[in-house]
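User: Could you check the structure of this?
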Amino acid sequence: MRSLSYKEFCGERERFQASVAQTPEIAEFCSGAIWQQAAHDALHRTDEEANHLIIEDDDQWLAFVERDQPRIFFPLESAWMFGCPLIGDPARAVALLRKMPKTYTPGPVGFCIGGIRKEGQLHRELEAIRSETIQFEVFPTTDCMMIDLAGGIDPWLQRRSKKFRKSLRQNAGLSGLQIDDANRLEPDALIARIIRLQEQTYKWREGTDIFQMKEYADFYEAIIRQLHASGELRVLFATENNEDLAYIFGGISNEIYRGFQMSYVDSAKDRGIGNALQIENITRVAAEGVTRYDLGMHSPYKERWADTRDAYIGVFVVLA
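Assistant: Sure, the predicted structure tokens are below.
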């Protein structure tokens, strides 16, 4: 068992990612290093010198940071708690967690654990130690809407309602437009291009656009830069007469695609570009071998697209 500083953890990305890929029933991309590090550095502005509790033991990982008050540890990303800070085999990860109050933090210590699949194996393992805890509270976190592409795009389409398939055919949206694959565009130019398009949306006009909030703009910039460097960035623009009308971007981790943002300019809102660009993106990543397409948090419109709604919970546990 070894304790890592945050800087050392950032240098162990490949090994950590290998463990994430082997962890069952988690939101894989958001439990991974790129998402966790970007959130740690941008959303929470957590200094490297903060008290981190990052432990690795035979490819089992705990990844926490002390936040808000002493001896209370949170995941590196706790804005949505998409990701899980217990990585590896659930039973072994929970056994490792139980050692912490005596091994590294003598005395009672609290852990806020997100990204737990409701009624999944990790949930059951944590419930099994409830009687040993000083405090044990379950709370809702953020669900994920998932598209199953294991059989390819055609079976997925067949599972959609006739009404939805008809609406997709009627609103082709991209007819006459150019689709620009911007995966290899340099990050500075790509970020500037995204912001120029965002500035033409109703959310920007109303002052509610996520890119108008510095911490979230910095978060997505970090995501873009790291995914670009790893070759896992996926970005499409729909353009007309050399003007961008819409874009969609996300990233790939193993056989999982995670969507981040999709926007279109106000002037194109009646052209069905959003749906058409989503279908185009699904088709392309399915052709790459993606088997699960993560649409992110629940919203009513995503119900037409998703095959499942993966329900997640959080647990706050105090151990001694």
